[in-house]
Structure prediction request, 359 residues.
Amino acid sequence: MQNSNRISAIAILAFTIFSSPLIAQTPSNVMQLRKQTGSGMTLYYHLYKPEGYSSNVKYPLIMAFHGVGEDGDSSNTLYINNNGLVSAWVATAFQKKYPCFVVAPHNPSGSWIDTDWTVSNTNVKYRQGPISSRLAVSMKILDSLIREFPIDTNRLYVTGLSIGGWATWDLVTRYPDKFAAALPQSGGVDTSKAGLLVRTPIWSYNGKQDAVVAPLSVNLFMDNLDKLDGDKGVVYTQCQGNNCPAKMSANKIDSLINAGMTHFYSLDPAHGHEGWDLYYGDTLIQKWIMKQQRDTPAAGLKQRTRNSASHGPQSGYGLIPLGSRNTESESGSGPELFEANGKRVMIQASPENPPGQAE
Prediction:
């Protein structure tokens, strides 16, 4: 009798474990391997389609970029099975609450960006170069999926870790009107681009002890963004530079998310380069990103140009709070360009508004 009860208990436990919606799905088992050619190269990628999706419903899409440690050929599934980068988004519990498409491009070798990012470890003079062929093909992947599936173009999200974090920053600053939000992890950024993302929700996670990608550039970028976004500013959930008060409580963060805060920076004093499992498994971050929509701009902000992927990358045009600057650009000379600290550096005519043509 005791043995019978014991076997029954084990059977019930096994059923509970393997049928629970909280059990994570292995991404390589639920995603489709595909490929995209362009810019003289072919990129493989994995695609997750929400279970039972309807062609009559528009779904969000999350694009995820892996780190250099997961480079390899099409048979290497480490890049989607490791680190929570993809598994967090295809997990049964997450998909049940937030059904969405998930796409993960795979870099065969090298870096997602072509410029030397290592300079960011000693100073903040890293500047974005031309878009790499890998990221150009990644954008072709995104556009092809939008044509093929019922994807909500107002809810496109981009994330990545390590060199994938650099890719995330690179794309969201090139195409600030393409993405509804970005989650860069342990990456770096061109600090002169802060003005471009005043209206784009960002939640960056960096380790204060990171010796691989020092957080110097992201620290400056977020501080500049905090100044430029005068209405809301940046929520620093842990450290701001060397000032590290007690970690903000989950209840406080949740209340700020509910209040509509769009810029968050989690600079973790206890971690180095790798903290992404905690980051991607954070249900508050998941809640935050799925709230964001591209068609709900922050109040009081005017965008000078709306260059999307179909018109080519942004060329440095910033976002200007209404009424904050009364300059010649308001009379039709084109958008102003600003340094990350908000200082005006020049006036440049845009392709949509040549000199003398009213907006």
The radius of gyration is 21 Å. The mean pLDDT is 76. The domain at 23-291 is CATH 3.40.50.1820 (Rossmann fold). The first strand starts at residue 32 and ends at 38.
